[in-house]
């Protein structure tokens, strides 16, 4: 059987699939050509990340598809229920990228509280001529230790983020409609660990209490953070979104950044992805990454081998 990994797959995943008797195709096929390519090459499994969309049109046009796999967590680029109604297996790897995304969250948090994103723009331009001026401009940093991190969505990635926050000495609060409470185990290099229980609270109370807010939710119909929510947050709050574009009203966010209500934002995902708005890209108070939350070698290895394992189990 043939597997089309249209958005790529790790070498470890390819080797595992080939060992299981599958032929892996890593040719990048344009979205409008995916259905034709699948049919012409008798592809049984299509694997995607966030770029390729597998909607009803492809599902209807490709009766030979047996599995649709998503390398990562969110499956908003796949018509999951429709695929399942056609007898197609839909799989993903919800646990494989949790630590990678959580570490990126803290990359943005550290960048925001110490102005690293802006300093790295200006040091090459003015470092030799205005060193003292830049030093003064970036001198009012903030420590994360002792501050309150509000986590919206305390699933796998939210829990991984909570562990890192606890390790830094932060207070962690969470809001989650589906998880009333969760035990978070922080493990250390020498085998020791501590476990603490995080109890979900209302979104409104989280917004009012948190010094920093990070979102870990699937795609939504509306905004989780808009003008109303920004208004009740602490002055000088920091906001990070490494989840999905469209959960923050970016127009309202820019206004809040300009007014000083929000001290900084860290964005890995965007409303108009893959063409983020210029007002977002050029803003000096926003730390930016191009949707790379799961893009570490370790995470991609875990994703590839986990997808391979599921495919082999389902089709062997």
From TrEMBL:
Annotated ranges, domain D-isomer specific 2-hydroxyacid dehydrogenase catalytic: 9-315
Domain of life, per lineage: Bacteria
Domain D-isomer specific 2-hydroxyacid dehydrogenase NAD-binding span(s) in chain numbering: 107-293
InterPro entries (UniProt xref): D-2-hydroxyacid_DH (IPR050857), D-isomer_2_OHA_DH_cat_dom (IPR006139), D-isomer_DH_NAD-bd (IPR006140), NAD(P)-bd_dom_sf (IPR036291)
Single GO molecular function: NAD binding
Pfam families in alphabetical order: 2-Hacid_dh (PF00389), 2-Hacid_dh_C (PF02826)
SUPFAM superfamilies assigned to the protein according to its UniProt record, in alphabetical order: Formate/glycerate dehydrogenase catalytic domain-like, NAD(P)-binding Rossmann-fold domains
Keywords associated with the record: NAD, Oxidoreductase
Coiled coil (UniProt feature): none
Family designation: Belongs to the D-isomer specific 2-hydroxyacid dehydrogenase family.
Protein name: 3-phosphoglycerate dehydrogenase
Organism the protein comes from: Flavobacterium reichenbachii
């Amino acid at each position: 059987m043939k597997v089309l990994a249209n958005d790529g797959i790790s070498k470890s995943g390819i080797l595992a699939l080939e060992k299981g008797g599958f032929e892996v195709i890593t040719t990048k096929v344009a979205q409008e050509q995916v259905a034709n390519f699948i049919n012409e090459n008798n592809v049984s499994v299509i694997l995607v990340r966030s770029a390729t969309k597998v909607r009803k049109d492809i599902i209807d046009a490709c009766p030979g598809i047996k599995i649709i796999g998503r390398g990562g967590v969110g499956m908003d680029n796949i018509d999951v229920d429709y695929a399942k109604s056609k007898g197609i297996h839909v799989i993903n790897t919800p646990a494989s990228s949790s630590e990678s995304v959580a570490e990126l969250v803290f990359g943005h948090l550290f960048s925001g509280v110490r102005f690293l994103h802006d300093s790295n723009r200006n040091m090459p331009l003015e470092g030799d001529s205005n060193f003292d001026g830049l030093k003064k401009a970036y001198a009012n940093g903030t420590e994360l230790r002792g501050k309150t991190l509000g986590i919206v969505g305390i699933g796998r990635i939210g829990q991984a983020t909570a562990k890192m926050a606890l390790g830094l000495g932060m207070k962690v609060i969470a809001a989650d409609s589906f998880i009333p409470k969760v035990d978070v185990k922080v493990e250390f290099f020498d085998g020791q660990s501590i476990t603490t229980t995080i109890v979900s609270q209302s979104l409104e109370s989280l917004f009012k209490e948190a010094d920093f807010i990070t979102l870990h939710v699937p795609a939504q119909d509306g905004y989780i953070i808009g003008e109303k929510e920004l208004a009740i947050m602490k002055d000088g709050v920091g906001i990070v979104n490494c989840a999905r574009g469209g959960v923050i009203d970016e127009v309202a966010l820019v206004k809040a950044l300009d007014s000083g209500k929000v001290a900084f934002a860290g964005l890995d995902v965007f409303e108009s992805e893959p063409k983020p708005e210029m007002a977002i890209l050029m803003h000096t108070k926003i730390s930016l990454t191009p949707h790379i939350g799961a893009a570490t070698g370790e995470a991609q290895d875990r994703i590839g081998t986990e997808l391979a394992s599921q495919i082999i189990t389902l089709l062997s």
